[in-house]
Amino acid sequence: MNKDILYKYFSHQTTPQESAYVRSWVDESSENLKEFMAERALFDAITLLDNSTIHTKQNPAKRILLSASKVAAIAIITLAISFVVRHIWFPTEIPMQEISVPIGQQLNITLTDGTNIWLNSNTKLKYPALFNGKERNVEIDGEGYFRVAKNADMPFKVKTTEGEIEVLGTTFNIESYSSEKNFNAALLEGSIKITRDNKKYCLTPGQAAKIGQNGELLITHIDDYDAFRWTEGIISLKNDSFDMIMKKFEKYYGIDISIERPDLKEIAYSGKFYLSDGIEYALKVLQHDINFKFNRDQENHIIHIK
Fold it and tell me: 289 — phi, psi (to 5°)?
């Protein structure tokens, strides 16, 4: 196989005829599949270091540290995939790859079908190196903002621990952390079908779905589109309780926060913060409207709210 065509395929720049040719070639033999996977592993490693494909939002010092962690992660991913390529007789099903986003970071990736995904802090995404068969299946644990490439013949499915979303081509946000057992889906364009507990729910643009207190899925209207601006490095708050705000800060900044004044927890606040400004700046802004003090325990990586 011409490697130029393979790399065009990985970067979703092939013509429909070239894409069909690549898929046909992969299906011809297990040796072709092994070669495909090896080249894909190398492509992913290069892509992870390419700022045109994956973008991070943090200060220069953090960017250097993250670059080092990327190199280590790439080495691990590449070695793991290479081991599978060399030592396992592949079935017709393409094995899944996994990417993890560190706490306090966001990453942007584009899959081989052209689907673009922003991944939020502390999120894991599993996806195949090559979409084949009748469906495009990925798994997410965390939060992602999806722009799904249209393909009427191959639906795109996102699996979470709390439900599954099926689309043909659309833009939506999904938040479903297994550690929190939450599920929040919001549709911005197109249509999605959610399956949960053997029940199906269809959303239209402007609608959102979340798990209610009784465990049932509730369909509501989106009342704050700024909530999805986390892809721009913006933390948006709209009448959020102080307790919820601190939980968001923990998620975005990767630090523990101890609220030692129960009377603060239900105080509501609305506003926006840039992630790059840092948590101490955000807390000082909050102090203009809410009476509290804080100190940071650098050794134990915790902030005490008093």
Answer: -115, -20
- State the pLDDT confidence band at 87, using cuts at 50, 70 and 90: very low
Tens of pLDDT, residue by residue over 138-154, are: 999 999 999 999 988 89
Structure tokens at 156: 């795109």
**Dihedrals phi, psi of 106, to nearest 5 degrees:** -130, 145
> Whole-angstrom Cα distance, residue 175 to residue 231?
13
39 pLDDT above the threshold of 80: no
CA distance 171 to 173: 7
Number of neighbouring beta carbons within 10 Å of residue 262: 8
Burial (CB count <10 Å: 0-12, 13-18, 19+), residue 127: buried
Is the pLDDT confidence value at 217 over 80? yes
Contacts 24+ apart (CB under 8 A), 85-89: 85/34, 85/37, 85/38, 85/41, 86/34, 89/30
Alpha helix (H) residue ranges in the chain: 3-10, 16-28, 30-48, 60-87, 242-253, 279-287
Q: Which two tokens stand for residue 224?
A: 């704050």
Give the chain's mean pLDDT.
81
